[in-house]
Amino acid sequence: PGQITAFVGPTGAGKTTLVNLLLRFCDPLSGCILIGGKDIGALNAQTLRSTIGYVEQEVRLFSGTIRTNIAYGKRGAATAEIEQAEEAMNCMEFIRRFPEGLNTRIGAGGMQISGGQKQRLAIARTILKNPRILILDDATSSVDSETEELIQRALSRLMEGRSSFIIAHRVQSVMRADKILVLEQGRIVQEGIHRVLIQEEGFYKQIFDLQFAEMA
After folding, report:
1. In angstroms, how far is CA 211 from the centroid of its own chain?
2. Within a 10 A sphere around the Cβ of 141, how many other Cβ atoms?
3. What is the SS3 assignment for 133-181?
């Protein structure tokens, strides 16, 4: 708990497969995954998933109010809990612009709100769930730099005391991870922390040099 593990690698390296295995969307053909020393294959899938918060790059919002979209993270959540979650993600700033506030209706996919606002609602939903394990699958790749910084600050608070896994294509998203694992063709080919990996020849240094050259 409290440790942040990041996975990076080219498309097709196996990053999404890892998520699918952790959530038991599929089971391993050999070997096993242990959480707290217990094989997750022996756990009820619903029980396992109730302990995991999963924030995807593609935000899933459904037709209904902003309130019900956030409350989806916890059945029977009280209004005070929903408001705490939205405040933690700084959602009040844009929700207050709507005349009906939390009761504003949005269509499937949240067409009326921006990509960054959608992502903040999705993370507020996860905050409300209060999971023991957190998975962030390229959660800030589709937002601008200012929104990303806002989200990263909130995520830092969310990750405290939780086992967190970050899957990312941008080096900026994983620089502060306690452990970075580089995947290629389904295998771990590098392991370390940011300041060590940028000194080694390999995929991590290549994407670091490329992405920071683009920013210069």
Report:
1. 21
2. 15
3. EEEEECCCCCCCHHHHHHHHHHHHHHHCCCEEEEECCCHHHCCCCCEEE
- Beta carbons within 10 angstroms of residue 62's beta carbon: 12
Q: Which structure tokens are listed for 143? A: 């937002």
Confidence at residue 215, expressed as pLDDT on a 0 to 100 scale: 57
Say what the pTM is. Answer: 0.85
pLDDT in tens, 25-43: 999 999 999 998 999 999 9
**Residue 170: exposed, middle, or buried by beta-carbon count in 10 A (0-12, 13-18, 19+)?**
middle
DSSP string for 100-119: TGGG-EE-TT-TTS-HHHHH
Tens-digit pLDDT profile for residues 69-92: 888 888 888 888 988 888 877 777
Q: Look at the block and give the residue holding tokens 């933690």.
A: 88
Burial code (b: 16+ CB inside 10 Å, e: under 16) for 39-61 equals ebeeeeeeebbeebbbbbbebeb
